[in-house]
Fold this protein.
Amino acid sequence: MPSAPLRRAPLPFILAALLAPPSLPLAASASEPLPSAALGDAQRRLAADAADDDAFRDQVLALDALGASALAAERMAQRPQLFADHERERIEGDAVARAIGWGRVEPETPDARLAESRAALAQLEALQRDAPRQTNWEATRLRVDALSALNHLQQHEAVVAGYQALLDDGIEVPAYILGTVGDSLLALRRPADAIPVLETAIAHAPHDINARILLGYALIETERFDRALPLFEALAASQDAWPRHAGARSGYENWDRYSADLNHALAHSYANDHARAERMLQSQAGIGPNNPGLQAAYGSVQSRRSRPSAALERYEMALTMAPQDRDALAGRVGTLTALDRIDEARDALTTLQQAHPEDLRLERVERDLDRHRGVQATLSANRGRSRQRDGADTSISPFGSRDGGWALDVRSPLIDDRWRVGVFAHEGWADFVDGRVRHRAAGVGTWYRHDRLGAWATLGAASGASSGATWTLGADWRFNDAWRTGVELARNAQGTSLQARRLGIDADSATLTASYVPRDTFALQGRLSRLRYDDGNTRDQLGIDASQRLLTRPHLMVDGLLSAYTSRGSRGDTVGYFNPERDASANVGLRLDHITWRHYDTAFQQRVDVMAGPYWQRDAGTHWVPSLGYRHLWRRDGHELEYGVAWSRPVYDGLREQRVAFDVELRWGGAR
């Protein structure tokens, strides 16, 4: 489940009830005239005699029955003595309920978006304070209706506290407000508490689409996809797109079907099946391209499909039609950050803060951007052991019989939204038959990244098996969402074989990389490099790696893997370190990622890699080389801890060895 999912907010639960005329007074009967007729009759009588109290009373009651509760309350205040306490309190309660309902309607100006809700809540609180209700139900009703206003004002803690206070007082909370309480519990990230509340709401109103949608999200947020996905599917199937009343010539638009379809698609996206979600939303967008909520939802799925530019385009389409759309405003911050347009992301965050300062999601959006702009650090360590096939504790491996190392990279917060400065240090060692070899390097660097361009330069000093200056200079370019390429030059390259360093031989390198990642389920990466050793030897290497999603489930993803590699050395294998004149390999395998536990931004994931394929070396023949890896990945608030063990049976100069290696890496602040 993606962090901080953007739920498609349903229409307020109480709104339909508020916009419909209240029930007739208890004294009314089927033989009495309809409210509209009663209002007309009362107005005619008042026109004849303005002092007619009975006519005045009938007019007020008719206005309230027709839904003009504010006008009814205003008129009632002129002659309050004509009404019993329960009638007066009911009409005043109806007026407050109407005001709360209308507060949720799109305002004329963005600045007035919450003004009516605040005014309605103030009116309700004034009644509670200045005119305590004499009727138990009306006193309870004000407390219940306050929950709706508080929910719209995003005061979700107050909603839950008010609901709990009702329960503590032994009051049976009306079912119509339970959906609102469930929505607030979800906003507070308490889905387990929301589930029984929403199930009770649905038990009282089985056809309440909004309550069922919220229940589906509560199940998703507790990782119960086995219940959530069938719920959304059944909900969509239960709604006709164009239902028709008996005798009608044509059907009418069923917005419940739209809500069901939209949330069904998003549910699949939260279950990691972004491809299916995209197909479903694409179909809807073809029907309703001018729907800003639909475009914003489509943008969120494009973002999860590793297409930030496409996502940004959808968010901007939504904002063109609805400049205050909170999903589009929040999503735009994240996609601009992913595109490394940090100055624009900060401006987008300011717009979101001004438009929706009360939204709880705002805090998470701010935190994500601050984390990206803040300090970034990576700390890693590794250990390995290689043995010959006969079990002897010797090895001709370029890693030696035992090897290890560590690396640290710390970069400053962003400077001018583009630059970072930092320090790096790393050490590697390996045991060979003639002793242990160590290589250390440390230095400083600067990194630039904005929009499509990234560039970096580092300068340091090396010590140990070899010494002297070390530096790198590189750049990369993002052509679009799919294509990226880069180049790097390095002096005294970190990847130089320790077998060579033990002989006092260093190497410079030039590396060209390219990647094609058109979607989240496919990736193709290539790497071409040349190592130029001090002894005159040059080594050219070409590697290609590809992955393709084969299976997607809410907690399990299976990818097919393919890798190919070839290299050549200009001096053959006569240089004192492993340097095949020609070699090549091809491997196929599977990667299984299992999300074992997850709660919003915190997750534990297990990964298994299994690969095998032939390795060929000139004058040494072809051998099959298997490998197996098992890893753990912990994520929390954008920070990651990853560690794992790998086993393989490589072949060097025709001799098979067995290698076991362990590595661990901590990434802080979204470090890449």
